[in-house]
Write a structure and sequence with these properties.
- This protein has about 210 residues and is α+β, with helices and mostly antiparallel strands.
- It contains eight helices and five strands, in the order αααααββαββαβα.
- A three-stranded mixed beta sheet has the order 3-4-5.
- Strand 3 and strand 4 form a beta hairpin.
- Helix 4 runs antiparallel to helix 5 and helix 5 crosses helix 6.
- The two termini are about 30 Å apart.
């Protein structure tokens, strides 16, 4: 892979070349193919490398069948949907705002990052086969305890699934996760299905 292409592909993942801490996409692909063994601390402790590995793993999970189906689709499908998924992954990796926990001990200052909460929201897709979460946003002042927060999620769904049903399942899973692990005052969870994919085995291939 040439330096120019490497730079272009890294930026496609929502990163800058310096975010990989001296590693290349080829090295990260090989590391992923080897099951991340033997462990490499310079990769495992690099937020940028972990973001790139996450994005590469998601793309690999879509498989050759997806690529073939996209190429044969009539009418032509929107080719930017993968970029939207990657853009969401890139945003999740950024720490964002600091979300405090209430504590009876004034000497304890407990908090969770906005990026960690977005990661928690994204993990809910594992309970809803056929969905991939793209971008998720926390609308409201998360830095203030008790402030009303609206969760906005963009997702891609598998063709043939009842969209309202899978959206409700994702909403319920996100709600459970947020109630269990945060103290956010969530007043609404809005889910927008931005893309519908035509691949019959997507749910199995992408897990």
């Amino acid at each position: 892979m040439t330096d120019e292409r490497e730079t272009r592909e890294v930026r496609r993942l929502g990163l800058e070349p310096t975010d990989l801490d001296g590693h290349t996409l080829d090295e990260l692909t090989d590391y992923l193919d080897a099951g991340r063994q033997p462990a490499d601390r310079s990769i495992d402790e690099s937020p940028g490398c972990q973001l790139a590995l996450d994005a590469l793993e998601r793309l690999q999970g879509l498989g050759a069948e997806l690529i073939a189906a996209e190429a044969a689709a009539e009418p032509p499908v929107d080719e930017n949907w993968v970029d939207r998924i990657l853009s969401g992954i890139a945003m999740d990796a950024r720490a964002g705002r600091r979300i405090p926990f209430e504590s009876p001990d004034p000497h304890l200052d407990l908090a969770i990052t906005e990026g960690a909460v977005r990661g928690l929201i994204r993990s809910a897709e594992n309970a809803v086969p056929g969905l991939l979460v793209g971008r998720c946003r926390l609308d409201g002042d998360v830095t203030q305890a008790g402030a009303p927060i609206r969760i906005e999620i963009d997702a891609s769904a598998l063709h043939g699934q009842p969209i309202p049903k899978v959206a409700d399942e994702l909403r319920a899973e996100v709600d459970r996760g947020l109630r269990a692990h945060t103290e956010l005052n969530v007043i609404a969870i809005d889910i927008a299905i931005k893309d519908v994919r035509e691949v019959s085995s997507w749910a199995g291939e992408s897990r």
